[in-house]
Amino acid sequence: MNRAHSLFVSAAAVATLGLTACSTPQTPAPAPSGGADTGPVQPKVNRLVIAMAQPAREANNPSRDLAPPDIVQLRPMYEQLVAVGTKDGRFEPLLATSWALEPDGKAYRFKLRQGVKFHDNYGEMTSKDVAFTMADLSAQESIHSNAADHRNLIEKVDEVNDYEIVFRFRRPDAAWLGNISMQLSGMEIHSKKHFEEKGNPTLSDRAVPGTGAYQYKERQQGAFVRFDRVAYQHWRVQPDFPELEIRWVGEASTRLAALLAGEIQMAPIPNDLQPSALNQGLKIATGTVKGVRFFLRFRGAYLNDPKDLSKGYKFPDSPFMDLKVRRALNKAINRDELNKTLLAGKGELMVNNHFHPVYRKGWNTDWEKRFPEEYGYDQSKARALLQEAGYGPGKPLTTNIILTNLGELPNTPDILEAVAGYWRQVGVQVNLLTIDRAEDTRRNNAQEFNNHISPWVAPSDQFLGAFIFNSYTNRPPAGDVVYVPEVDEAFQRVRAELDDKKQDELWRQYGEAQFRAVQHMPMFYLPVEVVYNPKIISEYIFPGSISGLYTHLETVKAAR
Predict the structure, then answer these.
(1) Which site in 85, 156, 190, 465 is 20 to 30 Å from 337, CA atoms measured?
(2) Which residues contact 310 (CB under 8 A, 6 or more apart)?
(3) CATH superfamily to which 47-289+528-558 belongs
(4) Which pLDDT score, from 0 to 100, does residue 209 have?
């Protein structure tokens, strides 16, 4: 285990605090914000088309068959119990009119909205459908990142009546409400009756009915998904556009050409192409809530058995097992130059992943002071760290960057090539690999990557981000986590604490362990932008902080 010990720093500073379960009733916010209901309007096109990069996986069940970012393909037809507001990112009632934490801190009680219709004449939504959706999401065969977590946490579900349901837990969990809200995806309420009649849908079937303002129309795999506006008065909002299409277009230049030709009306466009778009009359809508983080992931430092540390690591010879290597690769990157040249200066330096001095809990100003030494650009120090780790001109470090084209950051490949250039300057041999996203997902889940770097753009909230990218407890094998037991243990203490003040301190302790472990290459907080045609669209208000980013498409307002 000597080799493994270099993976993590001492966590002596991460003190274990007593866990106190407290009762904190959730006060529902006002009705969901946003909406296109400002009076009748005749749109200039019948079908609103938004283009974006193809997801890693396509499927017609939003719970068991899709990971959170990929649910963007079906979002317009579903709703959750708890919404995220378009203007401030706060939780708001949606299919639940209210919710409250039970006095013992180990259950949530929801009151459901009455009279909400399922598509395709599948009747009214009730507690049976809510319970079924959770069962579907947490099924053994589910690929959702939170499936195992839900199975381990939820002890039972009580359907009190058609419009009241209680989820009872084995332990307190401060993260759970966010995990089943619109923030994450997976808890898109869908029809139990349809599933019992038709089974789990394939790509050639209609998607399982939801309750959204748009309903499923058709799909062409690898090309698009289309939706129709529901024929009845939706309980929440009537979209301005009768049809909606989400079209898969990987190349940013192709998306811009389609925008200018009038073939599509909205698309994410990278910073270097935005001036051309603006000069030709297009406009930019920006997400209203900060929360999107761009960072690079080390892939290859996995425990063989997270429940038995004595079994060691799967790839003990991976260079990422060495903290010095992880620090060196961080310090070789000129973040300031990257921000100016490839992000138009729009990035806000991310000092510690999942943490922010204004918007998130547990901030420690000391991290900002230590960042230049621990992570900041210094090629001489990067070379020295590599030499200390046993690498040099006669034995160069070799690693692999996966050139992923992320829809959330349209010029990701350019950024990755620039990062490769920085690393080559300090003597690292870098292979640039192109791997299909579906294959990447498969290899990630199988933990086959042993010396690979890949980018990620995460809009997740603080709990979910730490769970997905830093933790390994109560989840399927994680291929995008540097397994550090001290960090995982610190996170479990945060999750178990319901008192806000105590939780804030536990976040700070967790953040310190994470900062010292160098589990990622933190890059930037980014604005989420989408370019649109103002001749067709007058307004699009969206948080930009939700998994999948481009949400609330039913509220896009048509130009008058």
Answers:
(1) 465
(2) none
(3) Periplasmic binding protein-like II (3.40.190.10)
(4) 98
